[in-house]
User: Fold these one by one.
Assistant:
Number 1:
Amino acid sequence: MPKIVITIPLLPGVQQRLEALPDTEVIMRRSDGDFAEPFPTEVIADADILVCKLPPTNHTEMQSLKLVQISSVGFTQLMPLNLPQRAARACNARGVYDTAIAEWSIAMLVNLARDLRGMIRNQDQGMWDRGERFCTEIRGRTLGIWGYGGIGRETARLAKTLGLNIHVMVRKGIGPRDDSYAVKGTGDPEGLLPDRVFTQGQETEFLSGLDFLVLAMPLNAANTGLIGEPELRAMKPEAYLLNPARGPLVQEQALLRALTEKWIAGAALDTHYYYPMPPEHALWHLPNVIMTPHISGTDKSPHFLGRMSEIVEHNVTHFINGGPLWNEIATADLA
């Protein structure tokens, strides 16, 4: 009899349908979510499926674990579990945050291009300034998206409607994407929207042709510090960097130099190097930077509960019945 331990909230109907599955035990155990904690041994020792934001600190006691479903897109919290060695599978929350993060990115494109921060500073001082830098458009410019998962594809869809050219940087090319959750009508399921696709070895060519660069990839050991001095210097002085992905994708000191020495025009940053960012950090105070406190996509969204519940119900029932899963994380990425 499969035992399922669920520590995140679900829509009542979904919870009831899971509890009604034949020969299945479902334990709902609310967790703080933002802090790892131990779970009672009697609850987790024989659990087959764990649905959580953060796994328990005493995860070694989970001797029957076969599937972990997490409520975040990033999955670094799974690394200590050694899931490949335990022959356990894992899925994340890809698709839940796509629309929110894509909307943040589009908002930042416009705000950076028109120097919204400068206009707000003028407003605070009662200054009337109709300078040219406030009057530009983003239509016709080139947006580069590094990584082309759900967030990248929805960002591309929105940007296309605004008339931007889309360049994409990926490891091996792009194609249809049917094994991931997506909100109906969003994204680029067939992989047809980009005007140009660049692959490994073409990074400098990709970066040099952009007006905006959006990072849209998960953080892992291979891409930590991916953007450093060579990459930032490859960008045009008029280009902007947007990072709603993970702060350490970009080398901190290289970014500070790029912004202060004007290698690039500016940046919008929603993910950071410290949590919280200390108030004295230079990034807070640079006039060409927009800082937001990691809110581009969060579980505080009014849509999170419904979307996450849909993923949980699909993956739990399909796992029990031997069907395909959404958002399965590759074994190599979990190692």
Number 2:
Amino acid sequence: MKETGRSKPSKFYTLENTHPYMFLIYLAIGGISLVFIFLLGGFISSTPDLELDVAPRYFPKAFVISTLVLLASGYFLNKLNFYFAHDQLDLLKKNLQYIFGMGLVFCGLQVYGWLELSEHGVYLNGKASDGYLFLLSGLHLAHLLGGLVFLLVVYRKVQKLGNDPIHALLYFSSAYEKMRIKMLYIYWHFMDLLWIAIFASFLLSR
């Protein structure tokens, strides 16, 4: 009788063997996605028809630049897993610094974008669609700040290793530390995709 080989593990088996922290990050992403889907739906439904909108909403240039900055941070983020797998401590540390710096620049540009909107007559307490614009970008910024805090925790851990080869070896062989890099990777890319969806909605609503 021929062996059929091992069957693939079921989704329930995979879920049961998922680390609680990974499960929480997936749960958080699901919850955040639902919130933003409802808010984006409200924003789109509150936006006037293009034929009736004789004065299109001003679109801040800072939002365009911040989008490019966030996408650039994703480029450096993609290298983290490789540097961790190959025990390249210095490059891992530098890329974490780059991502953190770009995250701070993104936050600054978002605030500047709100100032641009206010200067052009778009206010938080103005039209419903204008309020959604501030709400969506503000909530995204708040969740990105949470990602920056987690990134800082990961960076502090890497920085403490210094030039100690023993501690570095223990760090790079740790499944827990590998999982934290993966969590950061998943969450940050989710923030990228979420902002692109918000940015596209803002752009199309003009």
Number 3:
Amino acid sequence: MRLLIFITGLLLLSCGQNSPGQKDTKAAKDSTVTAGDTTTQKAQVNATDSSAPVVSPLALRVNDILETQPGNKWHVLNDHEAKWIKGQFDYFIAPKRKEHPDYPYIATADFDGDGSTDIAAIVTDDKKINFQLVIIRNADEKTPRIMTWKEDIAEDAAISVEPKGVVEGMDGEKTKKISLKADGINVEYFETASFVLYWNGTAFKRIQTGD
């Protein structure tokens, strides 16, 4: 009789250790860990993606044109590289960007007065320590002409179109009025300085419009 009771007890103990409920609980725990790991990985991927610079269609077009140049190392500057101070961005840039999505890095107009669309863009090199302004004349043609302006161009420069008309400023030590026959390129450093690049018929020149 005692032997029968002992055997019965062993059987009950064995069934309890391998019960389906415990297997399900362990599986649930394993599933939770896996789901947690997957969520963490997705979050990391999304964070990486969100930090990537946004490149507009027009910026891509400029970059493609620059790629055709031998030894090219330049591309259009973007918010990620310019490192704007938040207050400066919110006050000066965000309002204008509602109307001009590529502000302050790209401006389009007929800058040389020949009736064709030109593109001006602030660009940086692959090291992101050098900056210049490129002017792509006849940008709609198969072989656009590319000119560069390097003087006083930095990562916090903002460019926009200066409508043709009379512009007054300083040319060296002299006050001067320029009658723009075509749209000019306004280069601005917020609350510090500004100048306008204009086409004089053979080349782009500069007039200082703000200290």
